[in-house]
Amino acid sequence: MQPMPGRCFHCGQPLAQEAMAEHVRACCLAGSPADALLLHIRDAYFPQTFWIFALAPADLTLAALDDFLRRLWVDCCGHYSQFAIGETVYARRPNGSLVEQIMDAQAHRQPMTPPLGEVLTPGQTVTYAYDDAWPTELHIAPLAACRPEDQADIRLLARNYKPTTACRVCGQPAAWLYTNTWPLQPYCDAHAREHPDWQQPDAFLPYVNSPRVGLCRYRGPQDPALRFEVTPPEEA
């Protein structure tokens, strides 16, 4: 996938990812003691395509960051998720069976209860994974400690524009991915609906702006306010 610029949600400015890192850092006022973290979060496999910057209060837990990532980018069926920080794995299995919970305990996986400020340090890189069958893996880099203005939850500062891909039949922008083959095949809406497998459950998944696109049953955020299916200005 191609490198994607993104939009700053404070001023609306479109910038490349590297420039956005400096842009949002300038909007994050340093304080002492610091009570928030500026987070740079990227897809592990397509880091130049799918990326976000977020400001997270340091007293929120890893579970709160997990909730944020699930709502915004990855959750399809309530799968297992984990943060790997140094030698410690912090895990969560919302729909886990008793056997799975026992196996997690035997693997010394810890609950996601620590505050972000206790386990995340500027300069490190943390790995996040969602779903142990069809995993989506992210890298999280705390860039700076900051003092935000009256913020109680994680706030999205900037994210990538939607990458474009062409329908394999006509070359128009794709709206769907055909999942019964590998690699996944992009289709526009018209040609997807003409496909003989269109009525099969989950044979076609929406081509959405997320690193989880095309995996499991992912169809984008459930909250419409969290969707950002916007192409770069020059392509819009």
What would you say this structure looks like, in words?
The protein has 236 residues and is an alpha+beta fold. The protein has two domains: 6-160, Roll (Structural Genomics Hypothetical 15.5 Kd Protein In mrcA-pckA Intergenic Region, Chain A), CATH 3.10.290.30; 176-207, no CATH class. Helix content is 18%, strand content 26%. It has a nine-stranded antiparallel β-sheet. Strands 11-10-12 form a three-stranded antiparallel β-sheet. The two termini are 18 Å apart. The model has no long low-confidence stretch (mean pLDDT 91).
Low-confidence stretches: none
The Cα radius of gyration reads: 19 Å
Largest sheet, in brief, is: 9 strands, antiparallel
CATH class of the largest domain: Alpha Beta
What string gives the helices and strands in order?
EEHEEHEEHHEEEEEHE
- Helix coverage percent: 10-25%
CATH homologous superfamily annotation of the largest domain: MM3350-like
Q: Give the number of DSSP strands.
A: 12
Distance between the termini: 18 Å
User: How many domains make up the 3D coordinates?
Assistant: 2
Count of helical regions? 5
Which key phrases capture this entry?
236 residues, alpha+beta, Structural Genomics Hypothetical 15.5 Kd Protein In mrcA-pckA Intergenic Region, Chain A, 2 domains, nine-stranded antiparallel beta sheet, three-stranded antiparallel beta sheet, 5 helices
